[in-house]
Amino acid sequence: MNQFIEQLETFGQVELGVRLKDMTTMRIGGKVEYVSYPRNMFALAQLIEYVKKNDIDYKIIGKGSNLLCSDEDYYGLIIRLDRTMNHWYIDGEHLIAEAGSSIIALSVFAARNGMSGLEWASGIPATVGGCVFNNAGAYKTSMSDNVYRVLILDNGNFRWLSNEECEFAYRFSVFHKRTDWIILAVEFSLIEKDENEIRQMMDERKIRRLESQPLEFPSAGSVFRNPNSHNAWFLIDQAGLRGMSYGGAQISVKHCNFIINVQEATSEDVKNLIDLVIGKVEANTGVKLTTEVEMFNWNHMKIPHPSKR
Ligand SMILES: Cc1cc2nc3c(=O)[nH]c(=O)nc-3n(C[C@H](O)[C@H](O)[C@H](O)COP(=O)(O)OP(=O)(O)OC[C@H]3O[C@@H](n4cnc5c(N)ncnc54)[C@H](O)[C@@H]3O)c2cc1C
After folding, report:
1. The domain that contains 260 carries what CATH number?
2. Is the CB of 219 within 6 Å of ligand 1?
């Protein structure tokens, strides 16, 4: 076994040659050399120190539900927290969850314990860390409404950021600027409520999602941010793009801010549809849409991974 893998294994489980396609909800993306699942936050801190020292490119991913990865291979390390850093506990009206926790599982747990605030999140296939990163939200509620504080790893130090310090805005947080900070855990402030009332709201939201979103196909949720003036789906619809296909990708007929992977779509198929939407909507309305989905590994460097040099 090479020394690099042996070193990685001291920090946690390592997988080789996994495809980003198998780590993202869009089900697109090339092969990754190494995936690491750090045992806990201390192992994660040491792992980050190690990769920085050795100049190894790395990327944290949650459930990959907001990523459009290129089909190229990634010569770096993907770090995932969802297998190991996924524990939570209640402290009065606060719920403290590790960043790799599933937000769906957490919202169900909160409901079962009569804690209200996360009902909006019960259909989002994401981790708590990814939801903080993007300030995910739905039904006029978002992560920022519930977050009390966030534990981060900053240059080898653990420290808490208050809600204000997270600089939450529409699908934005300070973590977009500070990509060197890692979200380790989140403390939520929730409200006591009857479990049945919470469940009823979650059930209603589930029905709305099933009716309005193409959940039967792989996707990354809404592709475009809503501009100030209108909903992005409305502008896409007005531009006559509902149902438009390119290769194996399609602008969903059910919800035209979703691009779905209908049949073995390539990353370029999706990218072509994104460019088409931006161009047509701008020509039609003068509004330039921007993506909510994050493009990952598109400007990769064609150099071998340090361990292979
Ligand atoms: C069917 C479907 C429905 C969706 N519905 C919604 C919705 O209603 N509302 C909404 O807002 N979004 C929605 N999304 C989009 C997506 O779920 C959110 O953007 C979510 O916040 C992404 O979380 P993730 O764990 O999958 O993060 P990923 O997509 O894996 O990563 C997103 C970014 O977060 C960073 N990141 C992840 N974890 C950490 C961490 N611990 N520390 C630092 N950075 C980190 C990654 O590096 C990356 O830059 C939907 C997606 C799908 C597929």
Report:
1. 3.90.78.10
2. yes
Ligand 1 pocket member 14 (CB < 6 A): no
Mean pLDDT of 149-167: 98
Strands 294-296 and 67-69 turn out to be: parallel
pTM for this prediction = 0.95
Question: Which of 124, 146, 215 most suits a substitution to test ligand 1, by most atoms within 8 Å of the C-beta?
Answer: 124
Same domain as 94, residue 181: yes
Ligand 1 closest atom vs CA 134: 21
- pLDDT of amino acid 300: 60
| CATH number of the domain encompassing residue 34 | 3.30.43.10
Q: Note down the domain range covering 47.
A: 3-83
Does residue 133 sit within a domain? yes
What is the structure's pLDDT at 259?
A: 98
CA 111 centroid distance within chain: 23
Q: Indicate whether 309 pLDDT > 50.
A: no
108 and 69 inside one domain: no
In a domain, 217, yes or no: no
Over pLDDT 70: what percentage of the chain? Answer: 96
The model's pLDDT over 11-32, given as tens digits with 9 standing for 90+, comes to 999 999 899 999 999 999 999 9
Residues 203 and 273 in one domain: no
Tell me, using a 6 A CB cutoff, whether residue 127 lines ligand 1: yes
Q: How many domains, in total, are found in the chain?
A: 3
Whether residues 233 and 277 share a domain: the answer is yes
CA–CA gap between residue 251 and residue 233 (Å, rounded): 10
Mutate to test the pocket of ligand 1, among 44, 57, 65, 158 (most ligand atoms within 8 A of CB): 65
Residues with a catalytic annotation lie at: 171, 222, 292
- Using the mean position of ligand 1's atoms as its centre, give its distance from the Cα of residue 65 in Å: 5
Does 252 contact ligand 1 (Cβ within 6 A)? Answer: no
Check pocket membership of 100 for ligand 1, CB cut-off 6 A: no
| Max CA separation in the chain (angstroms) | 59
Q: What is the DSSP string of 17-82?
A: S-BGGGTSTT----BEEEEEEESSHHHHHHHHHHHHHTT--EEEESS-TTEEE-SS-EEEEEEE-T
